[in-house]
Specification:
This protein has about 550 residues and is of the alpha+beta class. Helix content is about 15%, strand content about 25%.
Length: about 550
C-alpha cells in the first residue's frame, strides 16, 4: 500500500495517512472477566482493526532487520572465559616489599667523628603503593629512632609523580624529603615478586660499618689509669650485672629470736649492696622488703677516736676498703652493718661469674631444713574422721569457725571437663541372686570421682547405685588416703567400694585411647589387659569429630 499524498493535504505530521478513508484508530479490548476472574487474552486485531501479522512473519522480519558482524578472525571463534575481577585491596592485601638501606648523617663540630651510618628498613605496601621508613631502635643510642617516615605515597619529582615499586632496586639512591637512602638488599619475598614481574635485581651490597658503633665496642680512654679505678670501663662492662645471694639473717638476739630469709644483691657496676627480706605467704609481717637500701658498704675505716660513728656518717676519705665480690662466699657467714648473714646459695649467673673470675674461691651451697607444713600439722591435730562428707570438707572445720569449701584444681577441671572413662563390671558376691546384676563404673577425670550405675535386669530395678564420690583404696588411712585412679582399672581387676567388690569385665575403645596417650603414668599390665580384651595391639584411630573425646555413660 502506498502513501496517499492527494486530496490537497499538506505533507506534515498528522496529515499523512496510509488510508484516508479510515476513521477508527482505537486499540482492541484485551481485558475480560470470566466467573469473577480478570483475564487478559492476546489481541486478535491491531490498532484500527488492522489484521495482525503471523508469528512466522514477525520472526522473519526480525531476522532480516538483525545485523550480524562478519567473522573476520582465523581459527576458533570461541572466546575465553572472563576471569572475575579482584580489586587491588583484596589481591594485594598484607603483601609488603621490604628493602634494607642506610643513610649517612654528618656530624659537625666533633673532633672524633665525621659521620654516622644509620640503617633503616623500607616497607613498600603493594595495596596502595605507600611507603613507610623505619629505623631500628638501638638501646642507649640517645638518638630519635623508630618511624622516620610514616606510611604515605612518596613524591618522586616536581611534576607530582610518586614512587612505584618498579622504580626501586638494589644499589639505587632513594631521595625522600631531602634525605638520601641507599638500598643495599631486600628480603626473599621481595626478590621473588620482582623477578616474577620481569625486573632484574642488582647484586646485594654489604651494609657499611658505623665507625661510632665500632668505637663504642672497644672504648679507648685517652688517659691511663689502673683497671680497678676505671669507672667508665666498669660501667660499660658491668652495667645491669648483679650477683644475687640467698642468705639467712641470724636475728636470734632480737626480740623474736628467729632466722629470716633474705636476698643480698651485689651490683657490679658500682660495687653497691642491697638487702631485701623474703616474706612467706600469710606470715603476718607487714611487707617492708628493703632491709638495707642500695649503698657501698665500708669494710675497713680509719679510727675516728671516741666520737660515735652512729651520729655522723663515715665519709669516703675515712674508708680504707669497701666490700668486694671476694668477701661474699657461699657457705660462710658475713657481717654487714652489725648484722650476721649466712650465705646458703646463689643464682646461676653468680656461680658462672665466680667460676670465671674467682676460681680459687670455694662455694659450698647447703639446703635449709624445711619447716613443718601447717596443713600437715593441722591434719595431725585434727580429730579423727567421722565418715560424714569428704575428709577435705571435714578438715575445714579445724581451720576456722566458718568453714570454707576446699580449694580445687581449676586448671585440671577445665582441661578434663566432660571426660569420662566408662567400664562394665559385675558384682562379686556370694549371693546367687547377684550373679545377673550388671553395673557401669564411670570415672570422671575432672575431679577424680567415681559413680556406679546399675543396669535394669529381670526382677531388679536399675538406677544410680553410687553418686559421684572419691573412693579410697582398701587399707588406706584416713590421714593419708590413697584414692583410685585410672591406673588401677585393668580388665579383671577388683574394685572395692564400701565393702562391695566389683570385677571389671569390659571397657570402651576410647578408654584405651586415653590411657595410651598417658602411657607414662599407666602400668603396662593395665594397658595389656585392655588391648587383649578389645582385640587390638595398637590404639584405635582418633575420633574425627573431636581429638580428646572420651566416652560417656550411654556408650556402654
Amino acid at each position: 500500500m502506498s502513501w496517499n499524498r492527494g486530496h490537497g493535504l499538506p505533507l506534515l505530521p498528522g496529515y499523512t495517512f496510509l488510508d484516508v478513508t479510515k476513521s477508527a484508530f482505537h486499540r482492541p479490548q484485551t481485558l475480560t472477566y470470566s466467573r469473577g476472574y480478570a483475564l487478559a487474552p492476546r489481541p486478535t486485531v491491531g490498532i484500527g482493526q488492522d489484521p495482525l501479522l503471523s508469528e512466522q512473519l514477525i520472526q522473519q522480519q526480525i531476522s532480516e532487520l538483525s545485523f550480524e558482524a562478519p567473522d573476520v578472525t582465523y581459527g576458533s571463534s570461541d572466546q575465553g572465559i572472563v576471569e572475575d575481577f579482584i580489586p587491588a585491596h583484596v589481591a594485594l592485601d598484607k603483601k609488603v616489599l621490604r628493602y634494607y638501606a642506610y643513610f649517612q648523617e654528618n656530624i659537625l663540630f666533633s673532633p672524633e667523628e665525621e659521620l654516622r651510618v644509620r640503617p633503616v628498613v623500607i616497607h613498600y605496601y603493594l595495596e596502595d603503593n605507600s611507603v613507610c621508613i623505619l629505623e631500628p631502635v638501638v638501646e642507649n643510642s640517645a638518638l630519635p629512632q623508630g618511624k622516620r617516615v610514616k606510611r604515605q605515597r612518596l613524591p618522586k619529582n616536581e611534576r607530582g609523580e610518586h614512587y612505584h615499586w618498579k622504580d626501586l632496586n638494589i644499589g639505587m639512591d632513594l631521595e625522600v624529603y631531602g634525605v638520601t637512602y641507599h638500598v643495599t638488599q631486600c628480603d626473599a619475598f621481595t626478590k621473588e615478586f620482582l623477578e616474577s614481574e620481569g625486573i632484574a635485581l642488582n647484586e646485594p651490597e654489604p651494609m657499611p660499618v658505623d665507625p661510632y658503633s665500632e668505637r663504642r665496642k672497644n672504648p679507648r680512654p685517652s688517659f691511663t689509669t689502673a683497671s680497678g679505678s676505671d669507672k667508665m670501663h666498669q660501667f660499660l662492662t658491668m652495667d645491669r650485672k648483679v650477683l644475687r645471694f640467698f642468705a639467712l639473717w641470724d636475728d636470734t638476739d632480737g626480740p623474736n629470736g628467729e632466722t629470716r630469709p633474705v636476698t643480698i644483691q651485689y651490683h657490679l657496676v658500682d660495687d653497691t649492696v642491697e638487702i631485701n627480706e623474703v616474706y612467706e605467704r600469710n606470715c603476718g609481717r607487714f611487707p617492708f622488703p628493703a632491709l638495707m637500701r642500695r649503698l657501698k658498704l665500708p669494710k675497713k675505716t680509719e679510727a675516728s677516736g671516741t666520737f660515735p660513728s652512729c651520729v655522723l656518717e663515715v665519709s669516703t676519705a675515712e674508708v680504707e676498703e669497701y666490700y668486694s665480690p671476694r668477701d661474699f662466699r657461699v657457705g660462710q657467714s658475713i657481717t654487714l652493718l652489725g648484722r650476721r648473714f649466712l650465705l646458703r646459695d646463689c643464682d646461676g649467673f653468680t656461680k658462672e661469674y665466680y667460676r670465671k673470675n674467682h676460681p680459687d674461691l670455694e662455694m659450698k651451697p647447703f639446703e635449709v631444713p624445711k619447716k613443718n607444713d601447717p596443713l600437715q600439722q593441722r591434719r595431725k591435730e585434727a580429730p579423727p574422721y567421722n565418715g560424714f562428707g569428704s575428709p577435705e570438707d571435714s578438715l575445714q572445720n579445724c581451720f576456722s569457725l566458718i568453714p570454707a569449701p576446699p580449694k580445687k584444681n581449676v586448671l585440671k577441671m577445665l582441661e578434663n571437663e566432660h571426660k569420662v572413662l566408662c567400664y562394665r563390671a559385675r558384682l562379686d558376691s556370694q549371693n546367687p541372686g547377684d550373679e545377673n546384676r550388671r553395673f557401669i563404673l564411670s570415672y570422671f577425670l575432672s575431679d577424680d570421682t567415681l559413680s556406679i550405675f546399675e543396669k535394669p535386669t529381670r526382677g531388679i530395678i536399675g538406677g544410680k547405685f553410687l553418686k559421684k564420690k572419691r573412693i579410697p583404696k582398701p587399707g588406706s588411712t584416713v590421714d593419708d588416703p590413697d584414692f583410685y585412679s585410672p591406673a588401677d582399672f585393668a580388665i579383671g581387676a577388683t574394685v572395692e567400694v564400701f565393702s562391695h567388690r566389683f570385677v571389671l569385665t569390659e571397657a570402651d575403645h576410647n578408654v584405651l585411647k586415653y590411657l595410651e596417650s598417658n602411657a607414662s603414668r599407666i602400668p603396662l599390665q593395665t594397658l595389656d589387659s585392655l588391648r587383649q580384651k578389645l582385640g587390638t595391639a595398637k590404639s584405635q584411630p582418633a575420633d574425627p569429630k573431636g581429638g580428646d573425646h572420651v566416652a560417656a555413660e550411654p556408650s556402654l
